[in-house]
Amino acid sequence: MKMKKLILAVSAAALLLVSCGSQQTRDVDIEVLAGEIVQTVSFDDTLEEIDDSMISMMYDISGYQDAVLYKGSGATAEEVALFRMENDEDAKTALSEAKAHIQSQIDAYESYMPDEVSRLEDAVVRQDGVYVSVVVSADPAAAEDLLKKSF
Asked: Rounded CA gap, 76 and 138, in Å?
């Protein structure tokens, strides 16, 4: 009887440690989330969804399972990009590429639209498990809050 209780206690403790040690994100429909971001976060430009085939031309992120990209007209640097990667390690690599994309945008906008640089410097670029998000908007705090709630 004591042995059963001991095994049960050890099993419960192990389960608790495992659940505390791993941070899992929710399974998120990034199409729906991107649409929600575009509709609820403040943007100065009108963002349009970019065809899937064009995403790889704008982002140097490969191996994603799913991706969605909304971009403005070019009059602003505003955009929403969400990627679902195969695993956390791929997401970490994608996060690095997303940051490089933002830096490339900063370098490009500095010379012809310097007012957009601060918007790019305030961009929300984050990884939540297998998801990588980029939001360049007039209200990065609102975008950050929505992403935190979603993941």
From this structure: 10
**Integer Cα distance of 48 and 80 in angstroms:** 10
Is the Cβ–Cβ distance between 78 and 72 less than 8 Å?
yes
Amino acid at 112: Y
Count the helix, strand and coil residues of the chain and give each as a percent rounded to the nearest 5.
55, 15, 30
Fill in the amino acid letter for 2. K
The reported pTM is 0.83
Residues of the chain with pLDDT under 50: 1-22
Q: How many residues make up the chain in this entry?
A: 151
Q: 3-class DSSP state for residue 81?
A: strand
Structure tokens of 56?
Answer: 């790889």
